[in-house]
Amino acid sequence: MVRPVRMTEQSITAYDVSQRVKTYDADMELMHPNRSKMVQVAIEVLPFPRTAALRAIDLGIGTGYFTKQFLDHFPNSRILGIDGAQAMVELAKARLRFLASRVQFATRSG
Ligand SMILES: C[S@@+](CC[C@H](N)C(=O)[O-])C[C@H]1O[C@@H](n2cnc3c(N)ncnc32)[C@H](O)[C@@H]1O
User: What's the average model confidence in pLDDT over 82-109?
Assistant: First the structure.
């Protein structure tokens, strides 16, 4: 029988490795060459005007890649980014430092 708690630990531990985090986005670009376009399309199909004051949760925010594009597209929006891997969150905080007033982080699993 698969135990959910164990799965949660594994899914976070796999990402909480600073060496892996450093190359995460470059690795993703290799594995998913259309990653940027996919995120762009996912955001553009959201049925809200760009001026909407959205409040959203990025569950598993990782390096903040999606959140960065979301906040750029919706300049009045805010994000709560949740991730259990401290190493990923540190990179997300660095990437989003100029948008810090619009991002709140919670480092936890669940
Ligand atoms: C595949 S990465 C995706 C990161 C980001 N959303 C992206 O698209 O680049 C999955 C992220 O979810 C986090 N994660 C996985 N399971 C989790 C859990 N149960 N609780 C909190 N974070 C979790 C990992 O630490 C990792 O940063």
Answer: 94
